[in-house]
Prior knowledge:
The structure is a homodimer.
Chain A: H1 2-19, H2 22-31, H3 34-43, H4 46-55, H5 59-67, H6 71-78, H7 83-92, H8 95-102, H9 107-116, H10 119-129, H11 136-139, E1 146-148, H12 153-162, E2 172-176, E3 182-187, H13 188-193, H14 200-203, E4 211-212, H15 217-226, E5 231-235, E6 241-246, H16 247-265, H17 278-305, H18 307-312, H19 320-344, H20 352-382, H21 385-415, H22 420-448
Parallel strand pairs in A: 1-2, 4-5
Antiparallel strand pairs in A: 2-3, 5-6
Helix pairs in contact in A: 1-3, 3-5, 5-7, 8-10, 15-16, 16-22, 17-22, 19-20, 19-21, 19-22, 20-21, 21-22
Amino acid sequence: MQSDRNKILIESIKRLLRRDAAHNLRKILDKTHAADLTLVFRAVSQSNRKQLLDLLDDPEKIGAIFSGLDEDTVLDLMEHIAEDDLVAILEEMPSDDAADLISQLSEEKSDLILEKMKQEDSDEVEDLLHYDEDTAGGIMVPEFIAVSEDSTAKQAIESLQKEHLDVEMPFYLYVVDDYGKLVGVSSLRQLVVVHPNKQLKDFMTTEVVSVRTDMDQEEVAKVVARYDILAVPVVDETNKLMGIVTVDDVIDIFRMEATEDILKMAGAGEEFVETKSIMKSTRIRLPWLFASCVGGLMAFLIIGQFEQSLAQLAYLAAFIPVIMGMGGNIGTQSSTIVVRGLATGRIAITDMWAVVLKELSIGAILGIVYGVLIGFFAHVSYGMGALAFSVSLSVLCSMSVAALVGSLVPMFFARVNIDPAVATGPFVTTAIDIISVYFYFKIATTLLGI
Amino acid sequence: MQSDRNKILIESIKRLLRRDAAHNLRKILDKTHAADLTLVFRAVSQSNRKQLLDLLDDPEKIGAIFSGLDEDTVLDLMEHIAEDDLVAILEEMPSDDAADLISQLSEEKSDLILEKMKQEDSDEVEDLLHYDEDTAGGIMVPEFIAVSEDSTAKQAIESLQKEHLDVEMPFYLYVVDDYGKLVGVSSLRQLVVVHPNKQLKDFMTTEVVSVRTDMDQEEVAKVVARYDILAVPVVDETNKLMGIVTVDDVIDIFRMEATEDILKMAGAGEEFVETKSIMKSTRIRLPWLFASCVGGLMAFLIIGQFEQSLAQLAYLAAFIPVIMGMGGNIGTQSSTIVVRGLATGRIAITDMWAVVLKELSIGAILGIVYGVLIGFFAHVSYGMGALAFSVSLSVLCSMSVAALVGSLVPMFFARVNIDPAVATGPFVTTAIDIISVYFYFKIATTLLGI
């Protein structure tokens, strides 16, 4: 099994690191695939990573490992590498990844490195630095195969044998006119199948799916996924071909966006914090808890208004957790389903009212089920019909409102172009807490006449 | 913009559907890409889908649309299609998708359809039906390019021109020995670059990444992502090449697994329920709320034990929401970070204690910050030093324990091979609720001497 093999690899390397067996480590590092080494680098401590880095000579391998690690980790490791080695590594990395790293360095250092890099590589990186990191321009690679529409299949194959050797995914041939504008696409497959003297313009596909340099990376990823293509060409506003975004980057984007959504919905920042220091993680997570702090204190103020009633019937307080809990959980269900549905395209923004109505119905049905159950429990415990009925009604109200708010808020935010994930988690929960507590005390004091 | 174009397309089709303009609809359907039509099908009602389906003639296009829709939706649409048309559509679909659908039909109907399908297609589908849907065998396609290790580059290119025309992603050539065992891999790119008379065994790559038919699909996806490959060959236990899993399926797997994780963590089932009926959604969501119901009732019993103290100091109850809320939210942060970290490989199971210790530290720091803040608020409101101190201490305890439990539970579950996502959401929140309430009343009654 793949994963067993990797576990053994990681354990062996950890053992050799403890024994400081440089010679054996070097042997094992040399014969292991960069993708597997990335897993090893993720599994060991930062000081171990530096130890391993000293034993690696191949800048291409180091570049591939860097592409698979967190930016913070890599930036720290880069401090540890001599400038000339660093230049060699960055030259070997895909230009988009290199540009991301260089943009994080001090201006002085990045200028120095760009100067030392081979003209061609540094030009590519500098071009990419102009684009926003999260757009098609920021994630594209400028290495692609472009051929003139007048070339023949034979000429195209010959050019492949001589040039384009550094192209990452040489499967599509983009066809351009004399001004470099994208006019069609062909594939290596088509080239070997057609007659060698046929011109590209006569057999290329003219309906090319392309994206603009300023398109958000998540949109780009969706385009690649929707059309099941391996790379999408990126063009500027004049339709000039600037680069391509390949499917391996698309996978990374989807995984990253899913992580971001999950973290935002849990109110744990946007970036993955576990790899950061304790103080840094704390700083990122602190503000997200503020919403629930404010919400909790508002609930405190509401309950304070019913202090007289509480003094008369102390056990009213005992039902606060179950009412808050039921509302909170169904609200989380609703908002999660809506946020994920919007992200994956299974829910359309235009369906707002249909979705909200459906959630409200589900909330009401579940509210009746659990309201009866919890009311029955209250009746058994205290034998007061009016109290039991108040609790039942409060659970019903709390769960219905929670389903309503939990679905309405993200739908509304999506409509006005605010990221529904970020707006959902702690805010919805907190709003539901406050509403639930208020309903409960209002209903109970009214029905019990206190 | 891509997304604007699609919005216009959807709106036009909806308008034509309302006007029942069959002729115009047929024209627009004919010239629109199947991937775009999938978006349209997602955006309209089921009865509209049937209307559109009647206007589509091309079984390949219908098959492509079906591949992009929810299984439930497609199964319902299939009822609407004449058997012979259905057979034609299934023949055009990738065998793995066709097999998934056929496996959901009644035995009688699936036998009938398999019998009517072309021998070759039905054999492929029947072979796939033997594998578990979530394994490499269940998601592989049996169409791939396999060439003998003794062939020359020229022979390989010639065979590409004659056969393999239905291969989905003709980029890798898998090299097999006389027994069909996988021995190497080459690419179309290599074929056109090497001398035409060179034999494959002399230039193929012998280090082939492959997966076994019984490997879980999530593992398969991780392999493809890790090695940045476009397809991975699937072999049986004797290393015989059985099929390939392509990168477009890998994207779907990652998106689906992320959705599953998100839903499980929110306690909203595993499958996406929004596309199901109200009653079906309710049934799926009902049991997940049971944990928080039981937890809430346990909190009720705990508070009941402190009824005497509550009768003396009614406003003790007013702090229940803020203490529960702070604990619940930091617990959600911790468990989300751990679950997602485990899923993406950024946290290793072996790091259990390091991760838990770190979360505990963060919980304690944030507990002190918010404890002081909320305690200060309590002091301002009631002017009682002992009460304010109790509240502070309770917030600190609740947040520390929540961070501990929130990280420990998923790490522990992952260790004993239970899916951490499913075990995390409602269970962790509920446990934290109970612990928080208990701590608070114990601390407050002790310190206040009531």
